[in-house]
Structure prediction request, 361 residues.
Amino acid sequence: MNESKELIVAEELNVEQVYTAGGLDPILERIKSQVDGFTPNIDTATGRKEVASLAHKVARSKVLLDDLGKNLVSGWKQKAKVVDNERKRMRDFLDNLKDEVRQPLTEWENTEKERIARLEWIIDETKSAGESTLANYLQFPLEAMVARLKEIKTIAIDESFAEYSSAMAQTKDKAISQMEQAIAQREKHDAEQAELARLRQEAAEREAKEREERIRQEAADKARKEAEEKARIEAERIEREKQDAIRRQVEAERREKEAAERAERDRIAAEERAKIEKEIAVRDAEHRALEEAARKENERLAKEKAEREEAERKAANKKHRAKINAVAAESLMDIGINGADAGKVVLAISEGKIKHVTINY
Prediction:
């Protein structure tokens, strides 16, 4: 399509003939026929530009015809009502025609916005899954983390991701890495807790066994003592005086032996308890070190996330302002201001150089 060719030329029009009842019909039909002969293509940037250009030419035709009518009415008071009615009919017709011409582009733009929003949501959800799992691996159930990792891995990055394929691939890989790291850390943590519980159980069982052994030994000692006492009494009855010295020696040796045995048992038990307590203390210290490392890592990730979100917010605001400025410039162009001047006006307003006029972002 010729970018410079207008749909109608003012010099070719007879204004008085145009603004009589039905006089606009041939002109409007000629504009409509030119529009009908245009095939829109919204699959390429050039095609979308041509659609916008044609819609803008329709808008300029409306301004041209409306201005001709205004000039005619200023010197043609008695026909003002007819002209005004025709002007309104012409404006409505060309406004509707402009919307009709631009409809394919508008629908494409809306579809594109929905596609981009859906892909960005998927990327954000994948990113959040990785970061949240790594930051909260001690709070999340292990089965839930494994199931979520499986869901992330099944995401197929096909042609539907288009220009977001690379970003999605990077986000997916990072999320999988973070979730696998979180699951490994959780499994290690659970294994350590299970090992501590096992050691405590073993220690309790040893203590119970030793307690039973002491009771059994004490009962045996008691029975032996009673037997010895009976023998001693019987011997004393036979030869009390002769055995007095022997009895005292035997009693002293027996007590010394019992004291030595009791001391040895206490020493062994104390060494066992000390060994167990040392193992538990070492594991507790390692666990605390792991928790401290995880806490510092969580703080670092939270700080990086906050910085990244602030940068994204600034970029989004800049993009939003540029989009609003573009729409404002297009609106100025729709009323006849050329593209360069429209851009300057919008820039001046956004910089506060035009008093009492602002742009609502």
About this structure: Helices lie at 15-18, 25-36, 45-74, 80-135, 142-153, 165-334, 339-350. Residues 1-118 form one domain.
